[in-house]
Amino acid sequence: MNDTEIFLYSALYDLSSGHKQVLLFKKDDKFLPVLNCSSNPNWAVCIDMKGNVGYVPYTYVEKKQVSVQEYLWLIDDSLEKLHGDSPSISKLTREAIKSLTSIRAHLLSSKNEKTEVDSVGTPVNDHMTPVVDPPSEFSSPVVNSANSDKCINDQAIPDAVEEKANETEPQESEQKSALQSVVENGTQTDNVNNFNVPNWLVPSLVENVRHKTHISHENSKAAVGIILDTLLDAIPILDTLWFQLKENLHQSEAIDEVAKEVIRSEDQRKLLDIFKQLWYCKNDEQQRSWPVHEDEDHISGLLVEMNNIFIDANPRVTREVIRCDEYEMVNLLVTYYQMEPRKTLRIKMLHVFLTICELDVVVVTQLLNSVLPMELARDIQDNFEDSEKVFHSTLLLSVIFSTGEKPPTGTYDFINKKFLHFVFEKLEDVAKSDDEDVGQNLLSIILAFNLHFESVQENIVLETLKEKQSAQYLTERLIFLLNREEDPCKILTESKDAENSVMKFMIDMFSFPELIDLFYLNDIKVLLDIIVRQLTDLLPGEKKRYDYLRLVKNLLKNSNYGEHLHQLEGLQKCFRFILSQEFPDENEVTLVLEMTYEFPQWFENV
C-alpha cells in the first residue's frame, strides 16, 4: 500500500435509511475504508468513527487524503473499538480487523524502513520514546448542512471563506510537526525543567478541552489551570515547567502569527461552515423570492449554533472570523435580515448581532453604516405589539447608536421626527402598562441617538421633544438615572468610557426653557439636591464635576430659579470651595466665575 492510497471517505450527503448492514450517516461524516472486502463495485466496506462496520455507497462519498501518522492512529482506534465488540463479532467485522491489521503492519514496516534510511550517520538517543500523536477529531458539523447543497445560485462563494473552511488539514500537519520537533529536542535532556514550552502548547490544550467537552473557552482555560495546579501539587519538581505553562495560559490570547497557524480551532471551522451555508440559503431565496424547501428549522439551527459559538468560543478566534474579508460575515447577516420576513429567524439574527457587537466594536460601525437601523426602525413601528421582537429590536438599535458615532446622512430619512414622536409616545404608554424592559430600551434609543449631536440648535431629538406637552415618565426617569449614576447606554464593554448619555441629554434639555418646563418643580428641587451633593463629593478635575457645573449653569439661566432659590446656600458653598482650592481646575474656575458674573444677585458674596 503506497502513500497515494492513504485516504478517508467523507460523506457528500445524508443517508438516513437502508439495509441493516448499511451505515447511516450525515453529510461530512468520515469513514475508514476497509480495502478488498467488497465484491460489489457500487459499495465500499467502511468503519465509521464510532467503530461500526458496514457498507457505504460510493456515490455518497469522496476521498480525503490524510497523513500516515493520522491513518495509523485511526486504525489503532478502530481496532480497539472493533475488539471491544467481542465475543459477538460478525464475519464482516472479522474481515475488517484482518484487513486493518495487515495495512497497519505494512505502514509500520514502510515507516521504519524510511526512519532507518533517514537516520544513517545521525546519533540516536537509545532512551528516546517514540511519540504517537492522535489526530484532530474527524467529527461532523454540529449543524446539519443537508439543505445547503440544494441551494441553486449563479454566484461563487467568497474565495477567502472557501479557502479557510478547507484549510484544517494543513493546520493539523503543522501542529504535529511542531509538537514532534519540540518533543524530540526536549527529550535530549534529563532535566525536564530545561524544557522550553512553545507558546502554542497551552492554547492548543485549551482548544482541545473545549472541543472535547463542549464547555466555554473560559471554563476550558479554568480546567487546564486546575490540571496544571494539581500536577504541581503531585510532582513539585515540575515547578519551573509549571511556571512556564501557567504563564503561557495567562498570555494565551497574545500569541504570535506562527502559533496561530499551529493551533487548530474547531470553532473557526464551524463558523466558516455555517457562514457558507447561510450564504447558499441567502442566495437561494434572493434568486427565487421564496425558499425552495421548508428550511426554517435548518436556518434556525445554524443561527443558534453560530450565536452559541460567538458566546462560548475563544474571542480571539471569533474576532478573526468576523473581521475576515472586511467584515463580510456581518454584511451577509445584514443582507439576510433585510430579505428574511420570518419572525423567528429575525429574532435569532438579532441575538447574533447583539453578541458580535460585544465581541468587536467595529461591528457597531459596520451596522451603523448599513441598512439595519432603517430595518429596525420599521420593525419597531410595524410590530410594536410583538413584545419579544420589539424588545430585541429596540435593544439593538440603542447599541448601534450608543458609541456616539455620527451616522450617515441617509439615517435621518427614517430616524426622523415621525419615528421620534412614535418613540416618545410609546415611552409614556409602556410606563402605564408596566412593561419596564421595553420602556428602558425606548429611553436608551433616545439617549443613544442624542449622543452624536454636537449642537443643540441642530438636534432633532430636542426639536421633537419641544412639540410634546407632557413627558412625565421621561423626566422622572432621567432624574432617577442621574441620582443612581446609571447610564442605560453603557451596554457594551467598549463603551464604558464613552460620554454619559443621561448627563448629556440633561445638559442639552436644560439649554431650552420650554424643555425645562416639562419637569415638575419637585423634580427640579431633587435635581438641585443631586448637583450640590456631587459638587461636594467629586474631586477637582473630574469630568463629572465639570458636567454638573454646566448643568447647573443651564438651569440657573433658563429656568425660574429665582422663584424658589432651592439649595442656593449649598451652591454658594460649592462655588467658594472651587474658587479657593490650592490647585483648582482651570475649566471649573472659569465656569464658576461666569456664573457669579451672570447671576450676581445670588452669588455676589462668593
How would you describe the overall organization of this protein?
The protein has 606 residues and is mainly alpha-helical. Helix content is 60%, strand content 4%. It is built from 26 helices and five strands. The chain has a five-stranded antiparallel β-sheet with strand order 4-3-2-1-5, covered by helices on one side. Strand 3 and strand 4 form a beta hairpin. The longest helix is centred in the N-terminal third of the chain and has 28 residues.
Oligomerization state? single chain
Count up the helices.
26
What portion of the residues fall into strands of 2 or more residues?
under 5%
Computed Rg: 33 Å
The tally of structural domains comes to 5
Mean pLDDT score: 83
Helix fraction by DSSP (H/I, runs of at least 4): 55-70%
The SS-based structural class is mainly alpha
GO molecular function: Arp2/3 complex binding
GO biological process, one term: endocytosis
Pfam families: SPIN90_LRD
Keywords: SH3 domain
Notable traits:
single chain; about 600 residues; mainly alpha; SH3 type barrels; five-stranded antiparallel sheet
Please describe the topology of this protein.
Elements: E1 7-11, E2 30-33, E3 43-48, E4 53-57, E5 61-65, H1 68-83, H2 91-118, H3 159-165, H4 168-186, H5 201-213, H6 217-234, H7 239-250, H8 257-262, H9 266-288, H10 296-312, H11 315-339, H12 343-359, H13 362-368, H14 372-382, H15 387-401, H16 417-433, H17 436-450, H18 460-466, H19 472-484, H20 501-509, H21 513-516, H22 521-537, H23 543-558, H24 568-579, H25 586-598, H26 600-603
Antiparallel strand pairs: 1-2, 1-5, 2-3, 3-4
Helix pairs in contact: 1-2, 3-9, 5-6, 6-7, 9-10, 9-11, 10-12, 11-12, 12-15, 14-15, 15-17, 16-17, 16-18, 19-22, 20-23, 22-23, 23-25
